[in-house]
Amino acid sequence: MREKKVQSGYNFAFLDEQSKKEIRRRMLKAVAIPGYQVPFASRELPIARGWGTGGLQLTMSLIGPDDILKVIDQGSDDVVNAVNIRKLLVLTTGVRTTEDTREATLIQTRHRIPEEPLEDWQILVFQVPYPEPLRRVEPSEVKTREMHAEADYSRLWVYLYEDIVRWGEITIGAQYPVMVNGRYVMDPSPIPRWDVPRLNMAETLYLFGAGREKRIYAVPPHTRVEPLQFTDYPFRVEDFRGKQCALCGSADTYLDEIIDDTTGARRYICSDTAYCAKRRRLKEEAGENA
Amino acid sequence: MNEMWDISWFDPVYSSQKVFRQLLDCMARPGKIAELRGVEGESRDFLYVAALALTLMDEETTFATLGPGWEEFVSFCKFYTGSRPAAPEQADFVFIDGDRPGPDLIQVRRGNLLFPDQGATVICRVNTIYPGAFQAAGEGIVLRLRGPGVPGERELTVAGLTRENLACLEKLNSEFPLGVDTILVSVQGQLACIPRSSSMTWC
Q1: Which of A22, A31, A215 to mutate against chain B (most B CBs within 10 Å)?
Q2: Inter-chain touch B17–A63, beta carbons under 8 Å
Q3: Which residue of A has its CA nearest to B28?
């Protein structure tokens, strides 16, 4: 165990043990009160606040030498934010990394849930920019905390109602507010609507960390997570009917729209790049064997 | 020096990480049982509660012990974690023997509606924890848990836990989100959690 210690000049996983202890205590409380935002003393890290420091501090407090780590940013393993976070974690822990969702024990993500199903031995850590779902209707932290205490979400419901009056449907795309365990309204971080149903009654533990806003919250497995909706205006996910991934041909994944600068042509590719690559590889192999 | 005071078996970085991950897994899946395998050494009365104290407690926390027999453990915690003893109604962590009456248990902190996370963590030492309903041994209470983290219902059998203490925990958790989160830890190193979000029945 100890021979895995890497010589980075830092403590294992960068954070000092007392910081980890505090974050661990908060995580346990977050899990015990699903959807409730637990305050914590967010630490300084070698990346700026607002760039995933919340998720990073959770990962640093969770990770052990036997973990297999995956870090994604908007579904991609190769984007700068994910690459830098992965580098820092590898430098200070020496853990194995992977791009394969099915292999990772610990996944840190910015704004996506991987397409492939997650299991009970995996943990998904979200980077959260704005943890407070009531902020769009109330600027004061003192007031929003009171509103959560009293489970008073009427102003958010009015906001959603007015959205329908104005636009004919609820216009919140990413960051769609959800009710957790019938008690707390929670911001699921800016994941697309596509991913929201996958928070409900999942196998995996979901942990959310907001570094700049200094909040930790959680959705344990097998927990009810319901998007806020009206019976006559039910929640719906993004509509990709008639579209498919230009690379792997997938028609059942969340797609990014790419617009060609010169021709203006639109095409779609999988947001989960590792899954897309895996599908292409499987296709090729099947082609070779045929 | 007492044998209990040797903590060479506990690596502050790697043991605490392993113990924490098992704790988190059990807290996220109430009633699931883990074996504290990050902790080596033969079974001793205080070994596993000490491992939990070393994992969770530091100078920023306070703790209380309920019932007799904890005096040496109090000194241990003060010395090795820096945590300070406090009255049961103020402590962050409350240690209790499951089979001993804890009249003060009903006083422990449940947090408030603005900050329910300030509710205490109760660390309850028991004899053994078995998965499922295991009454063959003729001892133990069968606990049935429901709520977040539990697909349907999860059963576990706990030996060394009185119905009075259970009833007290249930009462403390009757006003969610206020409440306490309980860690059951057996003298053999088994671990199971009952967060406040769980509803429980027993027989």
Answers
A1: A31
A2: yes
A3: A220
- CA A122 to CA A104: how far, in whole Å? 7
Residue with tokens 């309903």: B133
**Min Cα–Cα distance to chain A from B88, Å:** 19
Q: Looking at the complex, does the CB of residue A70 fall below 8 Å from at least one CB of chain B?
A: no
Instruction: Using alpha carbons, select from A65, A66, A57 the residue that is nearest to residue A108.
Output: A57
Regarding beta strands B121-126 and B181-186, do their DSSP bridges make them parallel or antiparallel, or are they unpaired? parallel
Name the residue type at position B37: R
Whether A21 has its CB under 8 Å from any CB of chain B: the answer is yes
Tokens of A143: 């007031």
CA distance A41 to B119: 18
Does residue A188 have a cis peptide bond before it, meaning omega lies within 30 degrees of 0? Answer: no
The verdict on a CB contact (< 8 Å) between B13 and A21 is no
- pTM for this predicted structure: 0.96
ipTM: 0.96
Report how far residue B155's alpha carbon sits from residue A113's, in angstroms, rounded to the nearest whole number: 31
User: Which residues of A are tagged catalytic?
Assistant: 35, 245, 248, 270, 276
pLDDT band at residue A5 under the 50/70/90 scheme: low
Tens digits of per-residue pLDDT, A141-181?
999 999 999 999 999 999 999 999 999 999 999 999 999 99
Nearest CA in chain A to B196: A32
Cα A185 to Cα A48, A153, A226, distances in angstroms = 28, 8, 9
Residue A180 CB partners (closer than 8 Å, separation 6+): A34, A35, A186, A219, A223, A224, A225
Q: Measured between beta carbons, which residues in chain B are less than 8 angstroms from residue A25? A: 56, 61, 92, 121
Distance CA A88, CA A107 (A): 15
Q: Per residue, what are the HEC states of A59-83?
A: HHHHCCCCCEEEEEECCECCCHHHH
> Between chains, do A28 and B23 touch, taking CB under 8 Å as contact?
yes
